[in-house]
Write a structure and sequence with these properties.
Helix content is about 20%, strand content about 25%. By secondary structure, it is of the alpha+beta class. The chain is elongated, with a radius of gyration of 13 Å. The two termini are about 15 Å apart. Bound molecules: iron/sulfur cluster (SF4). Iron/sulfur cluster (SF4) binds near residues 19, 21, 24 and 62.
């Protein structure tokens, strides 16, 4: 049993800013998906364990700054 709180992170995408470059999905396809129009979306509300680094790299690579990573306290 663990004590205290665990901070997880979630991805918030702003599809109105997404320009469909697809860099996020190339860097971290486990987190970032592209729809039929090439716009970003994510399946998971909370970034699965082990994918945080990739998710951050994908967010940092977005030229449109359409991806934000926010802490979620559970
Ligand atoms: S890198 Fe940014 S602009 Fe490109 S698909 Fe991903 S969210 Fe959209």
């Amino acid at each position: 049993m663990s004590s205290g709180t665990t901070t997880q992170f979630r991805v918030v995408t702003d599809r109105s800013r997404c320009c469909g470059y697809g860099l996020c999905a190339v860097i971290c396809p486990e987190v970032y998906k592209l729809d039929a129009e090439g716009m970003v979306y994510t399946d998971a509300e909370v970034i699965p364990a082990g994918l945080e680094e990739g998710a951050r790299e994908g967010a940092a690579a977005c030229p449109a700054e359409a991806i934000m990573i926010e802490p979620v306290t559970v």
